[in-house]
Amino acid sequence: MNDKLGFDLTFCQRVKIFIRIPRKESFLSIFRGFYVDVDEKLRNLIEHMRDENKAAKCEIATRKIKCIQNKISHAVSNENLDLLQLLVEKKGLKIEPLHSHHVHSAVSKGRKNVDLVRYLVEHNALSKENLQNDEGNTPLHIAIEADNFNMADYLLTINIDMNVENKDGEFPLYVAINNDNFRIAERMLSVKYCDLNMENSNGDNHFHIAANYDNTEMLELLMKFEELNGGSEIYNHWTKENKYGYSPLHLAIIQCFSK
Q1: pTM, full prediction
Q2: Are 188 and 156 in contact (CB under 8 A)?
Q3: Taking residues 20-47, what's their average pLDDT?
Q4: 238: Cβ–Cβ under 8 A, 6 or more apart, which residues?
């Protein structure tokens, strides 16, 4: 005990003597520098640990979201509205629009899924961020492709954007014209925000598409729509050339002489 105490006192005395030497300021500056260096390393270590903790929490949250969306996807893919309601209302699961295309899936499943789609939309499953799937199709594209009038009609009632081009350069109305879906096309043209001035990447407007497919009924429908809106753009639409130099009038004449 005494030896240890003696050693400690001797050590303290040595430190005091060392500090009292003329170059005390140099020593203190070195000591401060050492402290600052250690302090900086400690801060970096703490920050690194925080980042790792944030990353781990983020990964856990992402896994949780994926797990929830997988359960919701299962209900949607099986067209099971009761199960979906149970998951959302009883289990408290939240539909995340940024991580899913549940509405697209429900629309593609069949004609009887309007209630399922309505429920998804009412629970914020559709947003601008997930309006298009990997092919660039909106739920409206999919409904028209399937000739599902009731679904298309519902989507139009919620003011879904119908002026969106997919990766094949098709707007929803283009799809209706291509597939000769006259009833859906007529319903779409009754919507005030339908824009016939839209052009795809080839410079084709809706008149180009109808003329190229020699679809007289669709051309008459488009003309009727234009007349109801004043008719000021009819000439421009018929004479507008695409990037290949063809106007709808050119295409109509070509189709006429190719018969």
Answers
A1: 0.71
A2: yes
A3: 55
A4: 207, 247, 248, 249
